[in-house]
Structure formats: structure tokens, C-alpha cells
Amino acid sequence: MRRVFSILIVLGLILFFVNSLSILPEYGKVKLSKVSSAYINKSVNGNSEKVKFGESKDLEDGSANVVTSIVVNYRSFDTLGEVTVLFTSALGVGLILHGYKRKKYGRQPNFILRISVGILLPLILLFGAYIFIHGHLTPGGGFPGGTIIAAGILLLYLSNEEYDLSKASKFVESTAGSLYVIVGLTGLAISGIFLLNFLPTGVVGNLFSAGIVPIVYILIGFKVGAELSGIIADLHREEG
Amino acid sequence: MVYYISFILIGVGIYGILTQKNLFKTLVSLTIIDTAINILIISLGYIEGCDVPIYSKYTQSTNFVDPLPQALVLTAIVIGVGTLALGASLLIRVYEKYGTLDTEEIAVKEARK
After folding, report:
1. Is B79 in CB contact (< 8 Å) with chain A?
2. DSSP label at B77?
3. Is there a contact between B54 and A138 if contact means CB atoms under 8 Å apart?
4. What 3-state class would DSSP assign to A78?
5. CA distance linking residue A193 with residue A187, whole number of Å
6. pLDDT for the residue numbered A238
7. A153: buried, middle or exposed (CB in 10 Å: 19+, 13-18, 0-12)?
8. N or C, which end of chain A is more exposed by having fewer CB within 10 Å?
9. Better-scored residue on pLDDT, A46 or B4
10. Domain that includes residue B81, residue range
11. B60 neighbourhood in chain A, CB within 8 Å
């Protein structure tokens, strides 16, 4: 009886959604809004030149990836709030699971796992670092790079029972978060705008371009990796 | 139509929340609804015949898809991960107290006290 009523409720909801499809634009035929075209042509302050890869110099924002330029330059204050939300949720997980210790099984794990972690872990960490250093040129950025690093730390936790990285992860996390705010306050001291891009923006497409965007993304990558490692370490404990 | 895929996934998630008795399956259903809404928001920015919004050697034209929904969905995904971690830690505490995750058995054990 319960299942029949649930199916009826779900069918009614889907019918309501389909009937209200006329509000949404047709799929694949959306028109760019004024704000989006200003972000794509990097003309928020009134610059009306076409952007070309490898030629345009000293624009108001020099990153080749448009999504990165929105997230870390035009709306950087929003990203600071997002990192704060992630920090608060990691704090809540640590608070709820307080008082547990890691269970010691007293035997070594599999031979294949023990030997291969020494070969695989440097490669995984290097790949994560590559993704967040090149966040302004290629797809990716600080959040996916930090997640890949946390997956490598999980492999380290599985291979040996003696590792405990919780203190180191808390130190790295707090340091990176403080440095992000300090970068913002430097912009405030130079020109009176919080999180201003105060470094020169070079040629679009070079590695050393886009001002403070790569610096901020490297800090976000370290912070997200440390936070997710802390969550993994908290969930790894059991009653002992 | 990608919109219909998103609507069907929202229906699957709500059906799971209404009928499942295991609390972990309820958490999985919430995550399914989260993903369906992300798919809907991203598909609102698609334009036919346009490229990824990245300047590179291979995309010299500036016909890009709308980059604003992608930037907003990035925030939504991170917050979804945070809520999932909090829910999982709460479920660990519930299992420690009652020894089960079935809602009917938890109600029976509460009534006996």
C-alpha cells in the first residue's frame, strides 16, 4: 500500500515538472546573457577587443579558462565562503566522532598493497599537484586536485596501521586558509578592494600569467586535500 | 531531452526516501536528488555547436557555451560533499547506540525503554 501511494506521488510530481517545461528555454538554443558575454570577452570594465590565445597582453584578467576567471577572480569572495562551508562541515565531523581511537588489528596487510603503495603514492600526489597548478589553463583546479591528493592519503592509511596524519593535516589546513585571507587583505591595503588582483596579468595562455589566480588555486588545493584527509582519518576510527 | 533525465532521477530519489527503511539508503537517495539538480542546471547553459569555455590552440573561435552555470554548480557539488560527510558521521553514532539502521527496529527499541 505504501509503495502504491509513493508511486502515485512521484508520478504527480513528474507530471507537474513536465507541464512547467514552457518556463525553461529550449535545450541547446539558449541565448548568452549580457553578463556571460562580458565575462567571456573579459570586458567588464569596458574593454572591447577580441581576446586571442597567446597574443593578448595585460587584460583585466589573464586566465585562459573562463570558469576559473569567474570563480577565483570576479567572484573570489564567494569562493572564500565556499571554502569556509567545507571547513565547517569537517569541523562538525570531527566534533560528532570525538573520543574514538583507531582499531589495531595486529597483523600486516597484503604484500601487494604494502609494496605498491611506495610506487603509486608519489605518482598520485604529483598528478594532483599538476591539476591544481595548471588550473587557469586546463580543466580542473583546486577542488579536484585536492580530492585526488586525499585519495592518495587514503591508500597510505590502508597500507599501514601506524600512520597518523591528523595533526599535520590540521596544521596545513589552517595555514592555507589564513594565507588566503592574507592575500585578500594585501589587495585591500594596496587599492582599497578586498581580494584585488594586484599582480600583473601576462599573456593569455602562459604558465606565469593571470596574477594571483594560480597562487589562490594552489592554496585552495592544499586546503581541500588536508580537509578531506582529516574527514577520512575521522571516519577511519572505531570503538577501541 | 536532458531535462527528462533530470526529472526521472528526481522521481527516483523521492521514491527512495518515501519507501526505504534503511537509513543509509535514505542518504543515498538524497545524493541522487542532488546530482539530478546539478544535471538540470548545467544543461540550462548548453548551446548547440559551441566549444568548451577555455581559450586554447584548438578553439580559436569565441563561440563558447554559457560559463555561469558551471561556476555555480562547482559550489553546489562541494557543499553536497560536506553534507554527505556529516550525514555519514551521524549514522555511525546511530549504529553505535542502537546496533541497527532499520527505522522500525529503532522505534521498537525506543518503545521498550
Report:
1. yes
2. H
3. yes
4. helix
5. 6
6. 66
7. buried
8. N
9. B4
10. 2-112
11. 52-53
For residue A29, the SS3 value is: strand
At A29-44, the pLDDT tens digits run 888 888 888 888 887 7
Instruction: Decide: B62 and B39 in contact? Cβ < 8 Å.
Output: no
Query: Cell 553514532 sits at which residue?
Result: B93
- Split at pLDDT 50, 70, 90, the class of B11 is very high
- Chain A within 8 Å of B61 (Cβ-Cβ)? no
Of B8, B46, B62, the CB nearest to A30: B46
Domain limits of chain A? Answer: 56-238
Alpha-carbon Rg for chain A, nearest whole angstrom, is 23
Q: Give the gap in angstroms from C-alpha B40 to the nearest C-alpha of chain A.
A: 11
A190-239 pLDDT per residue, tens: 888 888 887 877 777 777 877 888 999 999 999 999 999 989 888 887 65
Which residues in chain A touch residue B89, judged by CB atoms under 8 angstroms apart? 92-93, 96-97, 234-235
Length of chain B: 113
Mean pLDDT of B12-22: 93
Give the number of other Cβ atoms within 10 Å of residue A176's Cβ: 21
In angstroms, the CA B87 to CA B79 distance is 13
DSSP string, A102-161: PPP--S---HHHHHHHHHHHHHHHHHHHHHHHTTTTSS--HHHHHHHHHHHHHHHHHH-S
C-alpha cell at A210: 593571470
Question: Nearest chain A Cα to B46, which residue?
Answer: A28
pTM across the whole model? 0.87
* Stated length of chain A: 240
Q: How far apart are CA A147 and CA A124, in angstroms?
A: 11
CB contact under 8 A, A89 and B1: no
Work out the minimum CA distance from A53 to partner chain B, whole angstroms: 6
Find the CB nearest B7 among A17, A32, A82.
Answer: A17
For chain B, the domain total comes to 1
Phi, psi angles (nearest 5°) of residue B59: -115, 85
| CATH at residue B57 | 1.10.287.3510
The reported pLDDT for the residue numbered B85 is: 92
